[in-house]
Amino acid sequence: MKVDVLVIGAGAAGMMAAGIAAQRGFHVCLLEKNHKPGRKIGITGKGRCNLTNHCSVQDLIASVPTNGRFLFGAVSRFSPCDTMNFFEALGLPLKTERGNRVFPQSDKAADVVDALAKFDASTGVQNIHGEAKRLIFSDGQIRGVTLTNHQEILAENVIVCCGGMSYPATGSTGDGYLLAKQVGHTVTALRPSLVPLISRGSACAQMMGLSLRNISIRVVDTTNNKVVFEDFGELLFTHFGLSGPLILSASAHMRNMSPGRYRIYIDLKPALSPEKLDARLVREFKENKNRDFGNSLSSLLPRAMIPVAVQKSGIPSHFKCNLITREMRHDFVALLKSFSITIDGFRPIAEAIVTSGGISVKEIDPKTMQSKLVKGLYFAGEVLDVDAYTGGYNLQIAFSTGHLAGNSVEKQEETK
Question: 316 and 365: one domain?
Answer without folding.
Answer: no
